[in-house]
C-alpha cells in the first residue's frame, strides 16, 4: 500500500484495484492503522458522492528508501539462492 502511495495520492477504489489480494476490510483497517501511525493522511473532499484521497505524509515518504532497500536485499538474496541452487545442480558431488 505504501508502495502505491509513493507513486502519488490514490482513491480507495484505485488502491483496491492495485491491491486485489486485500479484502475491503483489510484495506480499510490498514489505511486506518497507517493513518493513526502518521504515515498516511486521508483527505475528504466536498461534494456528492464524497471523494476521499489517501496520500503519504512526510513521514510516510521517508519509508520509500527503506522499502527500496528491502526490495534490493530480497532481489540479491534471491539471485544468490538461485545461483547456489544452480551450482549444486551442476556440481559433480551431488
Describe this structure in words.
The chain has helices spanning 2-6, 12-18, 24-36, 58-61, 63-90, and strands spanning 10-11, 40-45, 51-56. It is α+β, with helices and mostly antiparallel strands. Strands 1-3-2 form a three-stranded antiparallel sheet. Strand 2 and strand 3 (51-56) form a beta hairpin. The longest helix is centred in the C-terminal third of the chain and has 28 residues, at 63-90. The protein is elongated and about 55 Å long. The N and C termini lie far apart (43 Å). 7% of the residues are buried.
Tell me the major beta sheet. 3 strands, antiparallel
How much β-strand is present in the residues? 5-15%
Low-confidence stretches: none
Q: Report the order of strands and helices.
A: HEHHEEHH
Structural class from helices and strands?
Answer: alpha+beta
What is the CA-CA span between the terminal residues? 43 Å
How many distinct helices?
5
Count the E strands.
3
Strand order of the largest sheet: 1-3-2
Shape: elongated
Radius of gyration: 19 Å
Fraction of helical residues: 55-70%
Overall mean pLDDT score?
88
Amino acid at each position: 500500500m505504501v508502495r502505491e502511495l509513493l507513486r502519488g495520492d490514490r482513491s480507495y477504489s484505485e488502491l483496491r484495484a492495485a491491491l486485489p489480494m486485500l479484502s475491503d476490510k483489510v484495506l480499510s483497517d490498514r489505511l486506518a492503522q497507517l493513518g493513526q501511525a502518521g504515515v498516511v493522511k486521508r483527505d475528504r473532499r466536498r461534494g456528492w458522492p464524497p471523494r476521499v484521497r489517501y496520500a503519504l505524509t512526510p513521514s510516510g515518504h521517508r519509508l520509500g528508501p527503506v522499502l527500496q532497500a528491502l526490495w534490493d536485499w530480497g532481489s540479491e538474496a534471491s539471485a544468490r539462492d538461485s545461483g547456489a541452487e544452480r551450482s549444486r545442480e551442476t556440481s559433480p558431488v551431488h
